[in-house]
Amino acid sequence: xxxxxxxxxxxxxxxxxxxxxxxxxxxxxxxxxxxxxxxxxxxxxxxxxxxxxxxxxxxxxxxxxxxxxxxxxxxxxxxxxxxxxxxxxxxxxxxxxxxxxxxxxxxxxxxxxxxxxxxxxxxxxxxxxxxxxxxxxxxxxxxxxxxxxxxxxxxxxxxxxxxxxxxxxxxxxxxxxxxxxxxxxxxxxxxxxxxxxxxxxxxxxxxxxxxxxxxxxxxxxxxxxxxxxxxxxxxxxxxxxxxxxxxxxxxxxxxxxxxxxxxxxxxxxxxxxxxxxxxxxxx
Length: 283
Ligand SMILES: [Fe+2]
Ligand SMILES: [Fe+2]
Fold this sequence. Notes:
Layout: H1 13-16, H2 19-30, H3 38-47, H4 54-62, H5 65-75, H6 89-113, H7 120-144, H8 148-157, H9 161-169, H10 179-200, H11 205-213, H12 228-240, H13 254-259, H14 265-282
Helix pairs in contact: 2-10, 3-4, 3-6, 5-6, 6-8, 7-8, 7-12, 7-14, 8-11, 9-10, 10-11, 12-14
The structure holds fe (ii) ion (2 copies).
């Protein structure tokens, strides 16, 4: 991952980027990004709250049949290991609990609204990667004693800028970029765009910060909070299973990153084993 995405931090984009990336950056910075539909925004807001009343979630979902169907599809996926068929939102709550239901809602909203347009292969890769990182990041947060649901939201949306850029570049008015260059340009600019979209959607600050700076080197390498280190570890574990954000020739060195977490060897083995299991479920 190039660090050119640090343009948000005040780096002179004009000096830091090659001409094609610079052209796309200028276009992306002047673009108007879609807003989330009202129901999706409300569900996302409720899912980000540990104290949200179930009846509010139920009311919003009932008015959005497409989202309701997506919620059931996600709830019945092997990733959430449902003990039996989930046939309604209430059954999901009773069988899987509110904590899992929050993740299910977030994943359903993201699948329905974050990855809607763009080249099919690139969007599919971005979606699978986002879901893999979300589940691995949540598992990692539990091992570190951090908030699992915030970790899930941050993992799911960390690369928000990628699908937004793929969609933007499919617009007829967008600068022409070859497919070979497109992945690289998206890689360089996705943090910049992710930050803008996260703010436009009023996502929680922890999510916006993750979109903006998940490729920045944390000042102290700390894993005491959700951030660049925990995301980097989750990304490396996803890449090891072939679920990176783009095809990679050499997977990131997960072992070196894992050592930063100050977990015991046993805890690390559990995190690695669970990540591989999640990736298998996703495949
Ligand atoms: Fe990223
Ligand atoms: Fe990523």
